[in-house]
Each structure stands twice: as structure tokens, then as C-alpha cells.
Write a structure and sequence with these properties.
The protein is an alpha/beta fold and about 525 residues long. Helix content is about 25%, strand content about 20%. The radius of gyration is 28 Å and the shape is elongated.
Length: about 525
Amino acid sequence: MLSSIRRPLVPAPRLRSTLTASLAAVTLLVTAGCTSTSDDGRTALVTHEQEARVTVVGAATAPERAVEASRAFFESSPVAVVAPDGDAVAQGDATEQAERLGVPLLLAPADPSPGSGPTDPSGVSSPEPSGSSDSSASALAGELDRLGVERVLAIGEVGALEATGPEVVTSASSVEVPEAATPRDDVLAVVAGEDDRAAAATARAAGAEVQSLPEGVVDLQASAEAIDALHASPTTDTVLIGSSFSAVRDPGWSVAAARSGAQLPGGGQRFFPDRRFVALYGAPGTGALGVLGEQDVAATVQRAADVAASYDTASDRPVVPMLEVIATVAAGAAGDDGDYSNELSVESIEPYVDAAAAAGQYVVIDLQPGRADFLSQAKRYESLLSKPNVGLALDPEWRLEADQVPLRQIGGVEASEVNAVSTWLADLVASKGLPPKMFVLHQFRLDMLRDRSSIDTSRPELATLIHADGQGSQPDKQATWRTLHDGAPAGVAWGWKNFYDEDVPMLGPEQTMADVSPTPDLVTYQ
């Protein structure tokens, strides 16, 4: 379970805010400048207001992260609490004292001498912490100096403090509680590791709300509990504490998406590999293009639920119903715009999106652009793609050259055009703080996705899936499935299509799960 502990300080006049508005700006706060002093010349206890909406405290070692947290939350402090790195018992006592005093908790490098390794509460010696003791000691000394610390409360063996300058005491009764600083109750600190108790204690001492992620969770989008906690928090700013957060490509987006509270059925915001999707495919109002259009909106949503439920026994993952709605339909006539593609209105698709959302289903809108390009067509549906339960599919079979016509040639698309669409879509997700989106690429011939190895799958805002949608005999479909897997971009998910009328024979749920290897992440019915 997530812990939620807030320890407010006695309010003092609020410091003038210097927050920036950008959700995407991420700063490792290294503050410099003058130390604040009181009227009698002593160092004043002053908290630090965040310079960005999302701050990462993600250095490689716990002592370095403790220093980063101190810099993030405090401008100055006459007192600091210091405990040895790796000593769980001492850090437990130090945490209580730092929160009682409302001051930073910092870590001294553990004594590297033989037999002096830190111990856990059972008294068992623990491995020495990684990282350089010299650099940790230097960082500690530098932070004590920056804060203007006059007295250090040392809990445990902290020999590295001998040359730092401040008076070192070992008794809590020797330290007076400083005059309270402005509490940082507008900040949520998200902690990803047990070894960051010092950084977490500093956040609490500053008056911030602290949430500890479940054990082993380092991805906000993967945790239903983390998303619930961030969504429920009344705070405006976020500090991410843990070395794992240093690898997050866009922490600003990750936090904004989690704070949105939107989750997939079953919890969390990641599509794969923990879920399997089962979809109906087609265009609204007609059964000629797939089963989705054979009934009205309500019946379509119910049919999708029923088809997905037929996989519950056979699937080794939870199954989520999905609709793939053809938004632009390749046409035999050029039309007024000359692109051989009929574009459905947003208003005709929106009822499917809304009904699916109400039923806990996902929607992908599919583009068959004819002689148009994918990006210009995708932008037509920005309002739909701005909804959390809507993803995008590109169907290169219908992406034609200037002299080609649908059904006479099989189209294809360059990787550069696919990347232009994925970049635009990922940027849309990031700018609006949306959860990740499914990004589907249809393919049944290699030349449909040209230079496929160059397709960018690195954006965390998108889950890219290659959908093998060939029809016919099962041996031919299986051969296509294997061929498409060879040399595919790393990290993609996979989709398989079952055709009611064209497959010979069509596989049932148990056969699809047993005979298609590797088992698909998405199964679509047309």
C-alpha cells in the first residue's frame, strides 16, 4: 500500500512563489547564493520553493540524493541531522529527530574499515553502499556549508564530519527546535526506494506530503496505486526521489499523466505486457467494412464486450474490449479533394468513443488516407485523440502514390512519415498530460512499412503495435506472422486479425491463443 504522511510545521509568512508554469521542465535543484540569517545573525530556517513543477532527486547514491533533497526543500538551516549511510537503525532514529526539528537529514559515508559495515535492525551486517566515500563526504560538507549549519545532531557513527566546521553533538537535548519555516505543503514527494528514507525525511521536515511507491515500482504509469495517489493529492508540485527516476525520459509528462487519474481497465496506464486487447473493426453505419458497423453504437459496445469475454478462459492476461473505428475510408473515386479517401466527421465517431469510455473500453481510430498523408489526416481528429481512451492506427495498405488508386495497388509508407505522425501524437500526449496511447501500424507485406527498422519506438507516451492483418488460409497467415516478426523494431507489441468470412478457417479464442506464437497482444475481428 502507498503510505501518505504529512507533518505540517507551524505556519510562517508564505515566501513569494517563483514557480514556473511548464509541466515539462525538470530540474535537479542545486541552489547557490547567500544563507538567510535572523536578526541576531544566526542562520534562519528557510524552506526552498520549487523552481519547476517537477523536480528529480535521482543521483546514483543515497547520500547524494539526501543532499539533492536538502537543496530542493531548504534554502538554509541552523541545524542538520546526520546519520551513517546504510545504517537502518541510526537512520530510523535520525528520521524522527529531523522531522521533530523540521530540518534536513543528511547521510555521512559509512566507515569502510573491516567489520564496520552497517547493520539492519536484526544486527546483521549489510553490504557496503556503492559510490565514492570521498565524493559523498565532500557533498555532505558542501551542503552543510550551503545551508549555514551551525550545529549537527549526529546519530550513529559519522566520523566524516570531523572537519566540516559545525559543532557536532550526539544528544537531541543539546539541540533547540529552530523557529518554524514556511511549510512546503504544496509539494508531493514521491519516493521509489527504501534506501531514500533520509531524502523522504527531509521532505516531511519541510512540510511536504510524501508518498512511497509499492516495492519494486519505478514506473508511475504502471502503478494504479501511484496514479490514484497523485490524482488525489491537492499539491501542485512534485519531487521524484529515487535513482530510477533519473532514467525517465520526460518526468514532467509522467507526473502530469499520473495526476490525470485516467487508467485502463485493471489499473495503470501501460498497455503491454500485462493486458490483452480484443477488438471489433469497421466503419460506423456499414457492415461492408467490418463487424463494427453491423449494429448501432450500444450494440457494438456490447458485442465488443462479449467477444472479449470469450477470451477470458484462454488468455493468460486480463482482456480489455476495444473498438477500431475506420475514420478515413479509402475510396474508388477521387472526391472533391482528390485524395481517394472519405473522411468521417468527428461527430459521427464521437458516440463510439464516449460509449466505449463509459463501458471501460479502448478505441483506436484508423486512417486509410488514399493519396493524402497520414499526418494531415491524423490532425483532423485531434479533438478525439485528446481523449484518454483513444489511440491511433495507420493502415499503409491504403497510403497511395499520386498515380495509384485503392484496390488496384497495395500501398506503403516510409518510416519517416510514420515517425512524423508518432512524434506529433507523442507531443500531443505530453502537452496535454494524457496517459500513453496505443499506436497501431497495420502490415501484411514487408514493403508496406518501408525501412521499418528506422521506425522510432522510443517515445514513452506511445505503445507501438504492429498489426498483422492478412487474411486467407491458416498456413499462409502463420507464415506472414513469422515473416513480419523477423527484424521488427525492438519493443513493439503485436496484433493478429481474425476474419469471419475470409479466413480458412477462422480461429476461435482457444485456437488463437494456442496456435499463434508468440501469442498476440491484440486480437481484432473483421
